[in-house]
């Protein structure tokens, strides 16, 4: 059973959206019972908080409900527990690899956009932008999560 942890900075914008979108793709393919899916942040500022209001809105507008998710911070044991640790950007990728024990961890630590052909390898952080930024991030994550599922299933 593949396990996937999506990681961004605070676990309220990008990674909860990626978790919800990836879960949707997995369910749509009838694979829900074959995956463990979660998300976390490298920082601890929002631990226990629901996803950002705009993340919930854009998900709801597209037919997904991520409102029950709660932010948590990644811990070194996640690198032992999850098969895939998927960073939203280069900074978070670096921070994950700096966790104690990361050097010998069994998890494959990647940036999500390493899987798709995209000009940038960083999913932009919409936190300080407006609603349009969340819509654009959703579309990018939707494409990347579908491609990532194909990659995992190969």
Sequence of strands across the biggest β-sheet: 2-1-3-4
Mean pLDDT comes to 95
- How widely separated are the two ends? 14 Å
Q: Give the uncertain stretches in residue-range form.
A: none
Q: Return the domain count.
A: 1
Class by alpha and beta content: alpha/beta
Give helix % range.
Answer: 25-40%
- State the helix count: 5
Approximate strand percentage? 5-15%
Counting DSSP E segments of at least 2 residues, the number of strands comes to 4
Radius of gyration: 14 Å
- Characterize the quaternary organization of these chains: single chain
In sequence order, what are the helices and strands, one letter per element?
EHEHHEHEH
Approximate shape: globular
Second-tier CATH architecture: 3-Layer(aba) Sandwich
Quick overview:
Helices cover 38% and strands 13% of the residues.
Q: What tags apply to this protein structure?
A:
Rossmann fold; 154 residues; single chain; 38% helix; 4-stranded parallel sheet; alpha/beta
Structure, described:
- The chain has 154 residues and is an alpha/beta fold.
- Helix 4 (90-97) links the parallel strand 3 (84-87) and strand 4 (108-111).
- It has 5 helices and 4 strands; from the N terminus they run βαβααβαβα.
- 40% of the residues are buried.
- The chain has one domain: Response regulator (Rossmann fold), CATH 3.40.50.2300.
- The protein has helices at residues 14-28, 53-61, 78-81, 90-97, 131-153, and strands at 3-8, 36-41, 84-87, 108-111.
Question: What's the topology here?
Answer:
Elements: E1 3-8, H1 14-28, E2 36-41, H2 53-61, H3 78-81, E3 84-87, H4 90-97, E4 108-111, H5 131-153
Parallel strand pairs: 1-2, 1-3, 3-4
């Amino acid at each position: 059973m593949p396990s996937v942890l999506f990681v961004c900075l605070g676990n309220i914008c990008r990674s909860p959206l990626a978790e919800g979108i990836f879960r949707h793709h997995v369910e749509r393919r009838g694979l829900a019972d074959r995956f463990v899916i979660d998300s976390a942040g490298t920082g601890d500022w929002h631990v226990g908080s629901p996803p950002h209001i705009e993340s919930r809105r854009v998900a709801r507008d597209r037919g997904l409900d991520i409102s029950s998710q709660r932010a948590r911070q990644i811990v070194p044991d996640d690198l032992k527990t999850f098969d895939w640790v998927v960073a939203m950007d280069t900074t978070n990728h670096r921070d994950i690899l700096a966790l104690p024990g990361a050097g010998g961890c069994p998890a494959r630590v990647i940036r999500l956009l390493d899987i798709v052909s995209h000009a940038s390898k960083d999913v932009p952080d919409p936190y300080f932008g407006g609603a349009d930024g969340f819509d654009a991030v959703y579309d990018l994550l939707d494409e990347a999560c579908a491609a990532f599922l194909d990659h995992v299933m190969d």
